[in-house]
Write a structure and sequence with these properties.
The protein is an alpha/beta fold. The protein contains 8 helices and 7 strands; from the N terminus they run E-H-H-H-E-H-E-H-E-H-E-E-E-H-H.
């Protein structure tokens, strides 16, 4: 597991360049372009279970699904940031990508620190120090556990007699 750390105002074009918006529509087409202008090594080195730390206003910019879809598809366990742009926040919930706001944990992280996130208890351990964050709502956890809003809705509808 690796921790990737970036700064403030990481916008959707930095996460997935806008020039590919209409040419990349599948997960396999999106993955190689993730963060290519911000961190050229990211797409080739990211692994399932990795965690992304960032500053304020993560995911600002245009309203596109590709950044959240791609980050979920490569297996990012969670993104921990000081704050998130609302449109990215919603797109991430739709994809089942976990977002955690915890300013103190982001500030405390130094390259090489070990990081452990316990979603259920609302704690992040960074370099031996524990930080808390508000427990994620049950509905968001259910969407994440289902693999995203579409699968969550399918499962809910499957349990009903229509």
């Amino acid at each position: 597991m690796k921790v990737w750390k970036y700064g403030n105002d990481i916008n959707t074009d930095m996460l997935f360049p806008g020039k590919y918006t209409y040419t990349c529509s599948t997960v396999d087409e999106i993955k190689p372009h993730l963060l290519e202008d911000l961190d050229p090594d990211f797409a080739s080195q990211v692994q399932s279970g990795d965690i992304l730390f960032a500053g304020k206003n993560f995911g600002c910019g245009s309203s596109r699904e590709q950044p959240a879809l791609g980050l979920k598809a490569v297996g990012i366990k969670a993104i921990v940031a000081e704050s998130f742009a609302r449109i990215f926040f919603r797109a991430s919930i739709n994809q089942g990508l976990l977002l955690i706001e915890c300013r103190d944990a982001v500030s405390a992280f130094k390259e090489g620190d070990s990081v452990d996130i316990d979603i259920a208890s609302g704690t992040i351990n960074v370099g031996g120090k524990e930080f808390t964050f508000p427990k994620l709502p049950d509905e968001i956890m259910a969407i994440s556990d289902a693999g995203g809003l579409l699968e969550y809705t399918r499962k809910k509808l499957a349990g009903r007699n229509l």
